[in-house]
Amino acid sequence: xxxxxxxxxxxxxxxxxxxxxxxxxxxxxxxxxxxxxxxxxxxxxxxxxxxxxxxxxxxxxxxxxxxxxxxxxxxxxxxxxxxxxxxxxxxxxxxxxxxxxxxxxxxxxxxxxxxxxxxxxxxxxxxxxxxxxxxxxxxxxxxxxxxxxxxxxxxxxxxxxxxxxxxxxxxxxxxxxxxxxxxxxxxxxxxxxxxxxxxxxxxxxxxxxxxxxxxxxxxxxxxxxxxxxxxxxxxxxxxxxxxxxxxxxxxxxxxxxxxxxxxxxxxxxxxxxxxxxxxxxxxxxxxxxxxxxxxxxxxxxxxxxxxxxxxxxxxxxxxxxxxxxxxxxxxxxxxxxxxxxxxxxxxxxxxxxxxxxxxxxxxxxxxxxxxxxxxxxxxxxxxxxxxxxxxxxxxxxxxxxxxxxxxxxxxxxxxxxxxxxxxxxxxxxxxxxxxxxxxxxxxxxxxxxxxxxxxxxxxxxxxxxxxxxxxxxxxxxxxxxxxxxxxxxxxxxxxxxxxxxxxxxxxxxxxxxxxxxxxxxxxxxxxxxxxxxxxxxxxxxxxxxxxxxxxxxxxxxxxxxxxxxxxxxxxxxxxxxxxxxxxxxxxxxxxxxxxxxxxxxxxxxxxxxxxxxxxxxxxxxxxxxxxxxxxxxxxxxxxxxxxxxxxxxxxxxxxxxxxxxxxxxxxxxxxxxxxxxxxxxxxxxxxxxxxxxxxxxxxxxxxx
Length: 704
Description:
704 residues; mainly beta; 3 helices; 45 strands
C-alpha cells in the first residue's frame, strides 16, 4: 500500500488491486451464483442505498469476465411497495421453470417467492395473497426469516436454510421446501448454536461426497470482522460438527479483502469457487457499499476446507470469450476534473486513468456534482471503432450522456447521443462505425440528485459481438435529479433579529426565503453583547418546502454558532431537514446534533452510519459547528478544524419534511443557545469554513 502524509498523519491512499479485483463493477452484496445452460447468473442485493434497498438485479455472463446487468421486473405486495430485495436465491424447478426467493423486512422479516419461465423474469408471485414462503416467527416466535438459501439433495428433496442475527436468535433454521407448490416449508427446526460457532447470518448448504457442508458468515457485516465459517454433517438436518479450519475466509492484512462473507459456491468441472462480497475501497461508512469477488475453494477431504487464498484462480480464465480486445485498455485519458478524497482516513484520488485500467475496484469520479463533466481517451492512432461500453458507478440508475469521436482531439462528431436517456444498465452499449483517435464521454446528468459523474470502466472495440441475452431494463418514469443553486439557502441571526426588534417575524435571509415559525418555547437571549436564540423545548420551523436540491445525495453545508450549557448523551438536535418516516432506513435521514453519543454530530437512523464528535465541544462555551457533505464525504468541523469525517452515500427523503432549527422531527430538542445558523446547498471547503467562522463570530456582534 502506498501511504500519504497529509495533515501530519499517515493515510490510506491508492491500493493495488490486480489479483483481488471484484468481478462486478458496482455495489452488490449477498451474491448467489448459478449456471443455467451456458450462461452464468449472479443474483445479488443492490447495495449502497438505504440499508441495501436498491432495485432487484441480476448479472449474466458467458465468459465469467464480461458481465451485463439487468433490473428485473418483480411485482410488489398489495400492502406495501417493495424496496428490500435482500439476499436472493433461485432454483430451477423440475417443471423447467425458475423460482426466485428473497428477503424483505417491510412487513416483518419474510422470504417471498416468485416464478418465471426465464432466469431473468418477468416474475409472478408464487402466492397471490402475498403469503410468505418463509414467514417471520418461523420456526419459532421472534425468529427473523432472512438470508434463505436452498439446496437440492441427490434424491431431489429441496432444503432451505435461513436466519440472521442468529447469535441473538438461537441458531440457524432448516426446513424442507414443498416441491409441489415450491411455496411453503415443512418440518422446520433450529440448528443449535453450538453446532455453528460464532454465527451471524447467511447460511449456505452444499454437498461434498457424503458430507453436508453448512457454510455461514460470522462477525459483523459492517466491519473487518465479517468472515466465512463452516460445519459439516451426515444429514441435511445435522447434527453438525464445526469445521477444522476456522474461519476459511476473512479480512487480510493489506485490506485488499476487507469484511468478506455472505457467499455462494459454483462447481465447475470438479473445481469449486466461492463467490462472496467484500467492502469497497475507500470504504463507505457502515460497510454497505460492497463488491462481489470470487476465489477458488479447495477441499482437503470431504469435510475439510482449506483457508481461501484471495486472488486465486477463477473459472473465467479457462473459458474462451467472444469479446475482442479492448482498444482503450490503459490508453491515455484526461478529464474535466477528478475527485480528491481527503478525510481522516484517506488521501485518495479517483484518477481519470482508472476509467481505462480494466479494474472494477477503481473508478474515475468528477470533482463535484456539477454537470457536464467529460472524459477523453487517446487511442494513440486512428482506429476503427464499432462499439463503446460504459460502466457507470451505479448500474441501477440512469445516466444521460453523449459519446463523440475525433481525429485531432479538437473537432468532434457524435458517436452516440444519450442526452435524453432514462434506461439504467451496466455496461451501457453504444454502436456505430467510425475511424478516430480520440473518444470523448460527456456526462450530462444523473437520475438521482447529488450523484457525481463516475465511471468504473469505458471500453472500446473495433468489431461487434453477441451479448448473452437480448434484454434491456425498463426506462425510468422519473426525470433527472434536482440541481443545487450553489447559494446560501438558509440564514438567521439572533443579533439581527434583536436589532430590528422583529422577534415575532423571523425571516429567513437565505435564498429560499420564508418565515421561521416558533414552535414551543424559543426566546432571545442576550449576555455580554452576544444575542442568541434560547431553546427550551422549542424549535424554529421554516414555512417553505425543503429544497429538492437537498434530496437523495444532494450536497450541503450547515454552519452554526452554539453554546450548550449541559451536553446530554443523546438528543440535542441543532437542525433537521429530512423525513425519517418516509422509509425509516439508514441514510434516508440526516440531522445535525450536539450531544456526547454516537450520533452526537450526525444522525442517520443507524449507529453503523451515525457520526459522533471525536473531540466533544466543551460545555457552556461558544463553538462554531459546521457539517459539510459534497456527495462523497461528510465532514464535521469544530471551530474551524476538521473533527471527524466519513464516506457516505445518502438517500435523503425531503418530500414531506420540514426544516427545523433546534429540534428533530420527533423532538430531540436542543437545550442551549444559538447565535446564528446558515445552510448552503453545496459543500464549503475548509478555508471557506474558517472565513465563515470569523465573519459570523457572535462576540463581534456582526450581522451576516
